[in-house]
């Protein structure tokens, strides 16, 4: 699996509209063959920062994502609304998705 985390810090005047602006991109990515998850969260510590957690079944699926029209379209407009260059972690792992956490279970 390709596991990716990206931090997007958005210009304050665009922050409230960020999730609606990435909606089509998000839905198209989730529909891609090989996409395992594509989830947005908003930072509770850094104003105007959104964190994207994504997983792809293989390197090929990740490459198809980056080559897709919706990816290229998003990359074309995102420079107009980001405040800083996004930060990314991109790793290959033997995991095939999320696993249950051993240290905490419901009582």
Automatic annotation (TrEMBL):
Residues passing through the membrane, by range: none
Keyword set, alphabetical order: Monooxygenase, Oxidoreductase
GO molecular function terms attached to this record: monooxygenase activity
Domain ABM as annotated: residue spans: 2-90
Superkingdom assignment: Bacteria
One matching Pfam family: ABM
PANTHER family recorded: ABM DOMAIN-CONTAINING PROTEIN, QUINOL MONOOXYGENASE YGIN-RELATED
Protein name, UniProt field: Antibiotic biosynthesis monooxygenase
Organism of this sequence: Amycolatopsis suaedae
């Amino acid at each position: 699996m390709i596991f990716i985390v990206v931090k997007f810090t958005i210009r304050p005047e665009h922050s409230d509209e960020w999730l609606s602006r990435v909606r089509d991109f998000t839905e198209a990515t989730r529909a891609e063959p090989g996409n395992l998850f594509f989830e947005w969260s908003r930072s509770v510590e850094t104003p105007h920062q959104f964190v994207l957690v994504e997983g792809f079944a293989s390197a090929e699926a990740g490459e198809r994502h980056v080559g897709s029209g919706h990816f290229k379209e998003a990359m074309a407009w995102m420079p107009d609304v980001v405040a800083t260059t996004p930060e990314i972690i991109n790793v290959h792992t033997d995991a095939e998705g999320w696993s249950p956490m051993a240290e905490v279970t419901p009582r």
